[in-house]
Amino acid sequence: MDALDYYAIGQRIRKTRRARGLSQEKLAEIVGISTTHMSHIETANTKMSLLTFTQIALALEVRTDELLYDNSPENRSASIAHIAELLDNCTTQQVRIIEDIVNATKQSLNKNL
């Protein structure tokens, strides 16, 4: 698994904060941290605790995965292309098994999220 990209996470926090019309000061106040610490989180000059991260997500009213990962259409397209490459090297039977696994996973996600 790749290491966390704290700069990218900080930039997604900044983008979401701005989209919500919140200043760094206001978000820091809601989360219970200093404005300086919030600034450092957004610029990746410091790593935040898991508690602070979840409080930021709650304050911004987003899921944590939205802040952790790039959900852009470009990134999604790249992931789909990578999956297609993986499937190209599979037998017909393997593709059917993978399809069953994906369907079961998707149903579980829909049920539990």
Would you give an account of this structure?
It is a single chain. By secondary structure, this protein is an all-alpha fold. The chain folds into two domains: 6-68, 434 Repressor (Amino-terminal Domain) (Orthogonal Bundle); 73-112. Helix content is 73%, strand content 0%. α2 crosses α3 (35-42) and α2 (24-31) crosses α4. The chain is elongated and about 55 Å long. The model has no long low-confidence stretch (mean pLDDT 92).
Task: Supply the number of helical segments.
Answer: 7
CATH topology of the largest domain: 434 Repressor (Amino-terminal Domain)
Classify the beta-strand content into a percent band. under 5%
Mean pLDDT, all residues: 92
Radius of gyration: 18 Å
| Contiguous runs where pLDDT drops below 50 for at least 5 residues | none
CATH top level label of the largest domain: Mainly Alpha
Question: How many discrete structural domains?
Answer: 2
Which H/E pattern describes the elements? HHHHHHH
Shape: elongated
The SS-based structural class is mainly alpha
Number of strands: 0
In this structure, how is the largest beta sheet organized? none
> CATH H-level name of the largest domain... which superfamily?
lambda repressor-like DNA-binding domains
Kindly, what is the distance between the CA atoms of the first and last residues, rounded to a whole number of angstroms? 23 Å
